[in-house]
Hints:
2 copies of one chain form a homodimer. Chain A is an alpha/beta fold. Chain A has helices spanning 15-28, 50-66, 86-97, 115-120, 134-153, and strands at 3-9, 33-39, 73-83, 102-107, 123-126. Chain A has one domain (3-153): SPOUT methyltransferase, trefoil knot domain (Alpha/beta knot, 3-Layer(aba) Sandwich). Chain A contains 5 helices and 5 strands; from the N terminus they run βαβαβαβαβα. Chain A starts with a strand and ends in a 6-residue tail after the last helix.
Amino acid sequence: xxxxxFLTTGSLKxxxxxxxxxxxxxxxxxxxxxxxxxxxxxxLSDNPSQAEIDAALESEGEKILxxxxxxxxxxxxxxxxxxLSSEELAAKxxxxxxxxxxxxxxxxxxxxxxxxxxxxxxxxLSVSKLTFPHQLMRVLLAEAVYRALNIVKGTKYHK
Amino acid sequence: xxxxxFLTTGSLKxxxxxxxxxxxxxxxxxxxxxxxxxxxxxxLSDNPSQAEIDAALESEGEKILxxxxxxxxxxxxxxxxxxLSSEELAAKxxxxxxxxxxxxxxxxxxxxxxxxxxxxxxxxLSVSKLTFPHQLMRVLLAEAVYRALNIVKGTKYHK
Lengths: 159, 159
């Protein structure tokens, strides 16, 4: 059974995102060992400069990097990443599970992820060309992983 | 102000999707005249044949086509469609608003949309290569349209 871990920055403020994620956590529990760790977002000023944003991403990134174990397969969510279909994501997870039992997905704050975090990951994954709030992205990713694990298992869910 | 209408098939069963959509409906109300019409999904057998699926899509499609007005700009959500960034979707809506005040987005049931509906639309839009449940797709689209209208208006939301 894969250990699947989400490393996320910023909290789920809206009740409906929390409820949706909690439902997916429950469902994922039947297919993998799932956990979601939430790091605090660095507070920025109203009109942050690029330097302020970069410093925040660096500081948020350090906490993420401290959780990276060398043998885990690490996937960074970013808009410039590669898009996979649900079947391709399933194939990727199956392929990874042959060499490692740990998969980490990293979702950044509203300004994304630091270059160091992206470089330390094995894959950069993009969900959409559209921008989505990071709260919703967490729910989207949970759904995508749940579907992919169902494809691996051959259940009916993905139809 | 644009009239933006979602034509959807199947109901939102989960409370968290209903709550999320209701929040976005409220937010969209400040930027456009928003409505969401829900058509009944045709009930299929447990292991439907392709013919059964095609017949269901045809029947669902007829109700959708009956709502199409010639002057509305019609957008079909489908995985083989074109992906747009949030900025590109904003530009498209701005461009459409110069010639029509009505925009219709069509989301199919879990088996998608009939070929006739897709052909009758002005644009086929894809959100992701990943498959998402149609319930979640409705929320995703509401978020995407809300963000796009904020970009058109020049507010801070999309940052």
